[in-house]
Design goal:
This protein is of the alpha/beta class. The protein is built from 16 helices and ten strands. It folds into two domains: 199 residues, Periplasmic binding protein-like II (D-Maltodextrin-Binding Protein, domain 2, 3-Layer(aba) Sandwich); 95 residues, 3-Layer(aba) Sandwich (D-Maltodextrin-Binding Protein, domain 2), CATH 3.40.190.120. It has a five-stranded mixed β-sheet with strand order 7-6-8-5-9. Helix 2 runs parallel beside helix 4, helix 3 packs across helix 16 and helix 5 crosses helix 6. The longest helix has 18 residues. It starts with 18 loop residues before the first helix and ends with a helix. The N terminus is likely disordered.
């Protein structure tokens, strides 16, 4: 799960096992695997060298690796501290536990995810209110500081093949709902379990699929869609492959999903020990637009460029190197 990024010409999905090995076969096995991961990250960090080392984490999809590498490179340049990468830490729950346990010092989270998946709060649609609530609750309950938003909103995107959208003249989720019974859905584990995920979406749009969703790694969703193993997936609005692979986003016309502003989450103890980290991370506020994040994702997933190189160029363009 660690590593300094991706090898040359390798995407996040390419580092995963073949799809036939990665689609999760049963809920008990999944629960066991998650339990093992939780135990693995729950032991406190130790050793004198850790005091002068920052550890940056990420979840297990391309955008997260890009953002993790972005924080790592910037902090290396601006603080002079040694930075370790601990990427591919599965999903939200594992990253959160790793942060609480001190196994990582920071990672990038999304406000809507923090609100619903971690804080178990009701879905809310006002970005400012969501950010303020998450910031207050994370500080008071967890000793974790929520930094300024990076600038883009990565909401869930319900995606189908472009040819299907054109053939059926579909633009919104409401228009697509009558066809759900004929479709095979594919979702990540978190989307199935979260309060702002599959169950609520189904109720809001009266979605009834002909078969249960296939549960698979996030990096394999679009491949499964393109290979016609599934017909609808829950991706991310900033995914670079959507336009590159002729995929179509169905508009959330009932505004089911909350805002998902990207924000660095940092341990308060880390900021106390290294005040320069706060100053460095504050320089990221508002620096990444939706379009820029899509470009970064496409550079890695679509053009198969090295993550570290793509990030280095972007930081230089923003005078953050």
């Amino acid at each position: 799960m660690g590593g300094r990024g991706l090898k040359n010409g390798q995407t996040a999905a390419a580092r995963l096992k073949p799809m036939s090995q990665r689609i999760l076969p049963s809920w008990p096995l999944l629960a066991t695997a998650l339990g093992i991961l939780l135990v693995a990250v729950s032991f406190p960090a130790c050793g004198s060298g850790r005091q002068q080392t920052l550890v940056i984490g990420s979840k297990n999809f391309t955008e997260q690796v890009i953002l993790g590498e972005m924080l790592a490179q910037h902090l290396e340049a601006r603080t002079g501290l040694h930075v370790e990468r601990r990427f591919y830490l599965a999903g939200t729950y594992i990253c959160h536990q790793a942060l609480l346990a001190g196994r990582i010092d920071a990672y990038v989270e999304y406000t809507g995810t923090a609100l619903t998946a971690i804080l178990k709060q009701p879905v809310e649609n006002d970005p400012g209110n969501v950010y303020a609530r998450v910031k207050h609750e994370y500080t008071s309950r967890f000793g974790i500081e929520v930094m300024d938003p990076l600038g883009f909103n990565n909401t869930f995107a319900i995606v189908i093949r472009g040819e299907t959208a054109r053939r059926l003249n579909l633009h919104t989720l409401s228009e697509a709902a009558p066809y759900a019974a004929e479709w095979r859905p594919g979702f990540g584990f978190e989307f199935m379990e979260r309060p702002d995920g599959y169950q609520g979406l189904g109720r809001t749009y009266h979605l009834t699929f002909g078969q249960p969703p296939r549960i698979m790694d996030l990096g394999l969703l679009y491949r499964a869609l393109l290979e016609r193993q599934v017909d609808l997936v829950a991706g991310n609005s900033t995914d670079g492959l959507i336009a590159a692979r002729d995929l179509a986003i169905l508009e959330d016309d009932k505004h089911y999903f909350p805002p998902y502003q990207a924000v660095p989450m940092v341990r308060r103890e880390t900021l106390r020990r290294h005040p320069e980290v706060r100053e460095a991370l504050n320089q990221f506020g508002g620096k990444i637009s939706d379009e820029e994040m899509r470009w970064l994702n496409h550079a890695v997933d679509g053009e198969h460029r090295d993550v570290a190189e793509v990030v280095r160029e972007f930081l230089r363009s923003k005078h953050l190197d």
